[in-house]
Amino acid sequence: MHYTTTEAMALAEALTEELRDSPHRVLIAPPFTALSAVRGVVNNSNIMLGAQNMAQAESGAHTGEVSVGMLKDLGVQAVILGHSERRHVYGETNELVNKKVQLALKHGMDVIVCVGETLTEREAGRAEAVTEDQLFGSLAGVSQQDLAQVTVAYEPVWAIGTGKTATPEDADAMHAFIRKRIGEEYGQAAAEALIIQYGGSVKPDNIKDLMAKENIDGALVGGASLKTETFLPIAQYEKA
After folding, report:
1. Is 44 part of a structural domain of the chain?
2. Which domain holds residue 185?
3. Which of 30, 97, 132, 236 is 20 to 30 A from 12 in CA distance terms?
4. Which DSSP symbol is given to 139?
C-alpha cells in the first residue's frame, strides 16, 4: 500500500526507460488505484502489469473487492496470490487462496503463488511441512497444463522484519524442496520448468548470491521495488 497514482506512474516511467533492454522477465504490481494509469505507461514495453491480489468470486455482493474481470479489463496479466501479508494479517486460508488461483487460471491469467513459514514454525522444525501444506493447498485441482501459468514465490516470513536473515543457502534448500515435491506430484519436467522466486528481503547487495543458487529462478521484491536506485540493480543484477 504505497504510492499515489502520480507516484506510481513516475516509478513505472523510470523503470520502463531503464529496463527496455532487460533480458529478464519483469513485472510490477502497483496498487489497484494506479493500475489503469500504469497500464498506459508500460503498454508496449517489456514490463508486465500485475495485481497484488484479487477476489475469489467473479462478481456479486463482495463490497470492497476487485474481480478477475475488472483486472483483465485493465490489462493486468498476472496476479500475486497468497502473499504472506494476506495469509497472516488478513487470515486468508489455503482454501481461499486456491479459489483465487483456480479463478485466475480459468481466465487465462498468470499466477504467482506465495508460500513460506513463520519464525515460530521454522524454529519448531516445521518449515517444510508448512510450506508443503500451503503449496499444495493453494494448487489443489491445478492441472499439469495449468501449472505452466504458475510461478511459486517462497517467502520466509521469519526473514522479514525479525532481525534474522535467510542465507542464500537457506533459500536454495527450501526452493529445492519445493521443486522436489512438485516433481513428485506433477513430474520432473514440470518441476524443472517451474519458476520459483525468492521473496525474503531481496536487496541489491544479495541478489547476485541468491541468483547464483541452482533452484532460485527469480525474485519477488518487496521494499526494494519502491525506488529505482534499489530495484534497478536487482532487475539488472548481471550488469552490476
Report:
1. no
2. 68-239
3. 97
4. T
Q: Which of 92, 117, 121, 155 is catalytic?
A: 155
Tell me whether residue 17 is one of the annotated catalytic residues: no
Has residue 132 been placed in a domain?
A: yes
Nine cell digits for residue 176: 529445492
How far apart (Å, rounded) are the C-alpha atoms in residues 6 and 212? 36
N residues, the chain:
240
Cell numbers representing residue 145 in the block: 497444463
Residue 190 sits in a domain of what CATH number? 3.20.20.70
How distant is the alpha carbon of residue 76 from its chain centre? 14
The backbone region for 172, taken as left when phi is positive above 0, alpha when psi lies in -120 to 50, beta otherwise, is: alpha
Distance CA 158, CA 44 (A): 38
Distance of alpha carbon 12 from alpha carbon 188, whole angstroms: 37
3-state secondary structure of 2: coil
Quote the number of domains for the chain: 1
Establish if 195 belongs to a structural domain.
yes
Q: Determine contact, residues 154/199, Cβ cutoff 8 Å.
A: yes
Amino acid at 151: T
Q: Please confirm, yes or no, whether 83 is among the known catalytic residues.
A: yes
Per-residue model confidence as pLDDT tens digits over 76-107: 999 999 999 999 999 999 999 999 999 999 99
- Candidates 13, 83, 95, 229; catalytic one: 83
Q: Determine which of 44-48, 87-91, 139-143, 200-204 has the lowest per-residue pLDDT on average.
A: 200-204
Q: Where are the alpha helices (DSSP H) in the chain?
A: 5-18, 35-42, 68-73, 84-88, 94-106, 119-123, 127-138, 144-147, 168-186, 188-193, 207-211, 228-235
